[in-house]
Amino acid sequence: MIQTRPVDYRDGDTVLKGWMAWDDELPGARPGVLVAHAWSGQTDFERGKATRLAELGYVGFALDNYGDGKNGSTREENAALLQPFLDDRGALQRRMKLALDCLLEQPEVNQAAAIGFCFGGLSVLDLARSGASLAGVVSFHGLLGAPDNTEGTPITTPILVLHGWDDPMATPDQVVALAEELSGAGADWQLVGYGGTVHAFANPNANDPEYGTVYSKAADRRSWQAMENFLRDIFA
């Protein structure tokens, strides 16, 4: 049966409110998978992904990069929560590492990977860029721009990038720049591009063509299957 529990961890005085799901009928410790949230903060979307990971036999852990479980409900609120971490990528990388450490401290977990959506895609890429040691990371329609503090750091974590090719927030030029960056860092990386697909393709609530965020049932299904294959491979 799938069980859940809140898991608090800290960055100094800031309480970060994680949420964990696992199948208590499976014996022993198993791989855990961080779920990094989009720009609105940890929501039912990320907790639902953690639950789906638990149904696959992993431990799912929806992290909290903003602290205190903060959420935005408008573009303006989301942008205000996001911007400090775009301005200070070191702070983002620190919070991702704290979430990773917290996951690995759980008795149900023996190794870890990370997946992320939108801002969460950038978050897991930055975790790999920072030199953190984990089994792999998966970015779903993530932001791609490189930070200014990891140049020259080898990337030892396998990476899967799942990308809507028409994403206005991550253009083809940025995709090429990411590929060159990852190759230069010696990364084991894969990229899957979905034609005719824009930002937030895995979020059923995304329906704003003018803003470039539209759900795609096909890309959602295909990207999740690609993630499942990747996880099986890295945890083999």
Describe the structure.
With 236 residues, this protein is of the alpha/beta class. The chain has one domain (2-234): 3-Layer(aba) Sandwich (Rossmann fold), CATH 3.40.50.1820. It has six helices and ten strands.
What is this structure, in a nutshell?
The chain has helices at 44-55, 75-87, 89-105, 119-129, 172-184, 217-234, and strands spanning 2-11, 14-23, 30-36, 59-62, 109-117, 137-140, 159-164, 189-194, 207-208, 213-214. With 236 residues, the protein is α/β, with parallel strands linked by helices.
Number of helices: 6
CATH H-level superfamily title: Alpha/Beta hydrolase fold, catalytic domain
Q: For this structure, what is the CATH class?
A: Alpha Beta
Number-wise, the strands total 10
What general outline do the C-alpha atoms trace?
Answer: globular
> Helix share of residues?
25-40%
* Secondary structural class: alpha/beta
Structural features:
236 residues; alpha/beta; Rossmann fold; eight-stranded mixed β-sheet; two-stranded antiparallel sheet
How is this fold's topology laid out?
Blueprint: E1 2-11, E2 14-23, E3 30-36, H1 44-55, E4 59-62, H2 75-87, H3 89-105, E5 109-117, H4 119-129, E6 137-140, E7 159-164, H5 172-184, E8 189-194, E9 207-208, E10 213-214, H6 217-234
Parallel strand pairs: 3-4, 3-5, 5-6, 6-7, 7-8
Antiparallel strand pairs: 1-2, 2-4, 9-10
Helix pairs in contact: 2-3, 3-4
